[in-house]
C-alpha cells in the first residue's frame, strides 16, 4: 500500500465512528474516485470527510423532536403552492394523468382507485429493443371489446336480427380478425352468428326467441358492445414510448397481477400508480415504497424541495398497521387511542359522546390532548422528567440543617 493510500485509510478510519455504514461506504467510494480521476489532494479529502461528518451531525434529529408536527408543516406549506394541472401524453388526446394537488390529496386520502390509473410495462431483455415485438405485445395486453372495432350496431327486432358493421381500420389497428369477433359474439349465446355474404366486415346475429322482446333491446346492445375479444381487463389503452435504448408500454388502466403474468413482460419492473393494487399484489412494504415515490414525484414535478424523511414518516404512518390507511378521521386521525385527540378532528361532539358512552379513558400520552388541557406535551423538553431524591438531600448525622 502506498503512502497516499495509507493516509486516506487513516482519514477514513478517523471519521468512521461518526457515520453510518452506508454513508461511510459512499464517502469512501467517492473520495477514492475523486483522488483517482480529479487529482484531489489528501488535505482536501480530509476536509471533505470532516465536512460530511458535520453535515450528517446537523441532519440528525434531536431526542424528543416533534417530527410529526415538522412533517405536517413541511408537507402542508409547499402543497399550498401546487397547481391544479394534469399531464398530457403527446399524441393521445384522452391520456391525461392527474398531477399536483389533486394527486397528492388522492394519495393521502388512500382512495381505492386513482382517478387516472397508469401502468408502466417494461419488456423482457430479448424484445425490449424490438419495436415490432413491442407493438405486438401492446396489442395483446390492451383490452379490446366489440365496441372498439364496430362502426355501427343495428338492432332490427322486426326481422329478429342484429347487424354489427366492423371498421376495417380499427380491426387492423387492434390486431383483431373478423373471425375473432364472431367467436366473441358466439360466447354471448344470444343467437346464431355468421358473416354476411355481401360484406365481409358485417356480422349478422339471428336472435333467439327470448331476446326478441322490445324491452330487452338496451340489454342486447350492451351485451354486444361489451363483448370481450382479447386483452387484459382494466387496460383500456396502450401507447409505446422509447426510453433510452428500450421500448416501454404505457397503459391507461391497471391490472398488475395479470400484466405481470404476460410472457415477454419484465415482471420485476412493472409499475402502477395504484397504491392499493400494489399492496394487494406485492405487499405492504411495496405499497409504502409506492407512496413515497408517488408523493416525491408529485412534489418534485412542481419544483418543491421537501426532505425525503418527511415523506417517509408520512408513508410509515399510513402503512405501519399492515394496511394502507388515509390521513383523516376514517384512518389515522380517527384511530388514535386518545378520545380528546379524536374529538379535535371534525366530529367533536360525536367523539366525546361515544367516549362517554363507552366509558373510555384517555392515557394523555399524545401532543394534542395535553395541549387541550394546558399541560406540557411529551415533545422536546417535555420528554424529560426530573425527580428529586429526597434521601440524597437529607443532611447526614452531625451536620447542620
The SSE string, one letter per element, is HHHHEEHEHEHEEHHEEHEEEHEHHHHHHH
Please tell me how large the radius of gyration is: 32 Å
Number of helices: 18
Query: Beta fraction of the residues?
Result: 5-15%
- What characterizes the major β-sheet? 4 strands, antiparallel
On the 0 to 100 scale, the average pLDDT is: 84
| N- to C-terminal distance | 69 Å
- Principal-axis shape: flat
CATH architecture designation of the domain at 144-230 = 2-Layer Sandwich
Q: Quick one: CATH class of the domain at 144-230?
A: Alpha Beta
| Order of neighbouring strands in the sheet with most strands | 10-11-3-12
| Range of helix content | 40-55%
What is the number of strand segments?
Answer: 12
What structural class results from the helix and strand content?
alpha+beta
Would you identify the regions where 5 or more consecutive residues have pLDDT less than 50?
Answer: 90-94
Write the CATH fold name of the domain at 144-230: Gyrase A, domain 2
Amino acid at each position: 500500500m502506498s503512502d497516499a493510500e495509507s493516509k486516506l485509510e487513516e482519514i477514513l478510519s478517523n471519521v468512521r465512528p461518526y457515520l453510518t455504514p452506508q454513508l461511510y461506504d459512499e464517502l469512501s467510494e467517492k473520495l477514492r474516485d475523486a483522488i483517482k480521476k480529479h487529482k484531489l489532494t489528501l488535505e482536501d479529502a480530509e476536509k471533505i470527510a470532516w465536512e460530511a461528518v458535520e453535515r450528517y451531525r446537523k441532519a440528525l434529529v434531536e431526542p424528543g423532536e416533534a417530527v410529526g408536527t415538522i412533517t405536517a408543516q413541511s408537507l402542508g406549506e409547499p402543497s399550498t403552492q401546487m397547481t391544479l394541472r394534469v399531464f398530457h401524453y403527446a399524441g393521445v388526446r384522452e391520456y391525461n394523468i392527474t398531477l399536483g394537488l389533486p394527486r397528492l390529496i388522492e394519495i393521502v386520502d388512500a382512495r381505492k382507485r386513482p382517478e387516472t390509473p397508469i401502468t408502466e410495462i417494461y419488456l423482457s431483455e430479448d424484445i425490449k429493443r424490438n419495436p415490432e415485438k413491442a407493438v405486438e405485445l401492446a396489442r395483446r395486453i390492451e383490452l379490446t371489446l366489440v365496441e372498439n372495432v364496430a362502426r355501427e350496431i343495428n338492432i332490427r327486432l322486426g326481422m329478429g336480427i342484429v347487424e354489427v358493421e366492423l371498421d376495417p381500420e380499427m380491426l387492423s389497428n387492434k390486431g383483431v380478425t373478423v373471425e375473432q369477433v364472431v367467436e366473441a359474439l358466439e360466447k354471448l349465446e344470444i343467437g346464431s352468428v355468421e358473416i354476411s355474404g355481401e360484406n365481409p366486415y358485417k356480422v349478422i346475429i339471428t336472435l333467439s326467441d327470448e331476446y326478441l322482446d322490445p324491452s330487452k333491446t338496451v340489454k342486447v346492445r350492451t351485451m354486444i358492445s361489451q363483448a370481450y375479444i382479447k386483452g387484459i381487463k382494466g387496460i383500456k389503452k396502450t401507447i409505446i414510448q422509447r426510453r433510452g435504448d428500450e421500448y416501454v408500454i404505457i397503459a391507461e388502466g391497471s391490472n398488475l397481477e395479470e400484466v405481470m403474468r404476460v410472457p415477454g413482460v419484465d415482471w420485476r419492473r412493472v409499475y402502477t400508480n395504484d397504491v392499493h393494487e400494489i399492496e394487494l399484489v406485492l405487499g405492504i412494504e411495496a405499497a409504502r415504497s409506492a407512496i413515497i415515490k408517488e408523493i416525491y414525484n408529485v412534489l418534485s414535478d412542481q419544483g418543491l424541495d421537501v426532505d425525503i424523511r418527511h415523506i417517509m414518516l408520512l408513508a410509515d404512518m399510513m402503512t405501519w398497521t399492515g394496511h394502507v390507511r388515509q390521513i383523516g378521521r376514517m384512518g389515522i386521525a380517527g384511530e388514535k387511542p386518545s378520545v380528546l385527540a379524536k374529538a379535535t378532528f371534525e366530529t367533536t361532539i360525536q367523539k366525546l359522546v361515544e367516549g362517554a358512552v363507552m366509558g373510555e379513558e384517555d392515557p394523555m400520552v399524545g401532543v394534542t390532548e395535553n395541549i387541550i388541557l394546558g399541560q406540557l406535551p411529551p415533545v422536546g423538553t417535555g420528554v424529560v422528567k426530573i425527580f428529586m431524591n429526597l434521601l440524597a438531600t437529607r443532611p447526614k448525622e452531625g451536620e447542620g440543617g
